[in-house]
Design brief:
The chain is built from ten helices and five strands, in the order βαβαβααββαααααα. It has 224 residues and is an alpha/beta fold. The protein has two domains: 142 residues; 70 residues, no CATH class. Strand 1, helix 1 and strand 2 form a beta-alpha-beta unit.
Length: 224
């Protein structure tokens, strides 16, 4: 396989692919890494994600290129009810198992060997709590807020499990504690400062996804 097309739902994830994932894969001698922006609103600022639109984009990409992997980087909390097996997934209490169930359902629905589904649990911003160095990189955070952010990082050895409540989701914590926080600007900057090696050491689902991509492109380079 020549490379990887990663379907993303917003500009934050698009920039994350360009500034963090592309250099990481380049270091593994995988060079053609492209974010494919799937805007969920007319101005591409994100929103809830319909499977019908997602599937049509995946199918188009798979047909247009014969030697690429198509995958996704989409947030769990944004997906719509038209995703395959969505209602049945609600019966699964454990969120990690629920997301894995939905990924399997996506794979079965699209039914293509070059498609690797991935749903981020719970949202992209969870990755930004992988190490305090990312928070330390941002200036003008009040000391009290900075201490709260570090405490969150210390309390969640796996930041993918950060609570997904309306006010406790990772993105809400950042918005509430970092003055002037802008998702599309600060998110990719924090991730880049932390670095993919640290993120994959703390986020097992994210790590497994990158491994799956590596293995699909060429022989395994590393192991879990």
């Amino acid at each position: 396989m020549r490379g990887v097309y990663i379907i993303v739902e917003g500009q934050t994830e698009e920039e994350f692919v360009l500034t963090s994932l592309r250099p990481y894969f380049n270091s593994l001698e995988i060079y053609d890494i492209r974010p494919i922006l799937l805007g969920t609103t007319r101005n591409n600022k994100g929103g809830n994600l319909k499977f019908s639109r997602f599937k049509s984009n995946v199918s188009r990409l798979l047909k247009s290129e014969k030697d690429i992997i198509v995958t996704s980087l989409i947030d769990f909390f944004r997906i719509e009810k038209d995703f395959p097996q969505f209602q049945k997934s609600l019966e699964i209490t454990d969120k990690q198992n629920r997301v894995s169930f939905l990924e399997i359902a996506m794979s079965e629905k699209i039914n293509h060997s070059r498609f690797i589904p991935y749903i981020q649990l719970h949202e992209f911003e969870g990755l930004l709590f992988s190490d305090k160095i990312g928070i330390e990189y941002i200036p003008n955070i009040p000391q009290k807020n900075r201490e709260k952010l570090v405490k969150i990082i210390e309390e969640f050895p796996n930041p993918e499990l950060l609570n997904d409540g309306a006010e406790t989701a990772p993105s809400k914590r950042l918005l509430n504690l970092i003055p002037g926080y802008k998702k599309t600007l600060h998110g990719p900057l924090i991730a880049d400062e932390i670095g993919i090696p640290k993120i994959i050491s703390k986020c097992p689902r994210f790590n497994a996804w990158l491994l799956q991509i590596e293995n699909a492109i060429k022989k395994p380079i590393r192991t879990l």
